[in-house]
Amino acid sequence: MSDPGANALTAGKITGPYGVKGWVKIHSFTDPEENLFRFGAWQLERRGSLETVEFDEWKRHGKGMVAHIAGVDDRTVAESFKGLQIVVEANSLPSLEEGDFYWHQLQGLQVWGREPRATTDEPDKDRVLLGTVDYLIETGANDVLVVKASESSIDDRERLIPYLPGDVVSRVSLEQGVVEVDWYLEE
What we know:
Layout: E1 8-18, E2 23-28, E3 42-46, E4 49-53, E5 55-61, E6 64-69, H1 75-79, E7 85-89, H2 103-106, E8 110-114, E9 127-138, E10 143-148, E11 159-163, E12 169-173, E13 178-184
Parallel strand pairs: 8-13
Antiparallel strand pairs: 1-2, 1-7, 2-6, 3-4, 3-7, 5-6, 8-9, 9-10, 10-11, 12-13
């Protein structure tokens, strides 16, 4: 077992046992859900430590998925995995196209918006810090940035900002640690 590292990402969760032969129900956080089984180097987080496991079989079942943990052939043992997070190494994720980002890459970035009554010709002059991206929500129509106030933000409000590149989100720079949004402060 090892300690969870900064390079570890939660990719799913075991929600309970399935059947009597060591299978478990899986809730995948990947899109599409099946991508969870393409990583091949799975670890389960138990009490702050990681233990390596192998899913030797998996299949779709209803609206979710089930998988068999190699070496586990008993429902009672499978029950002991209920609630554990499935962790993968961030560097095992496939590369994305230019302008696409994984959610974990956006978390912690500063979010900059605009003053509502700005009349300057200098585009950076009306920028205000709204806070930092805490996490994202999948709504079906589009993802939503949950922006929490930070020490230097303009106020103490939490904001829900649609993640719509080219519309609401005008720029993302991982190098600079910023997301620029066309999101005006409420008057």
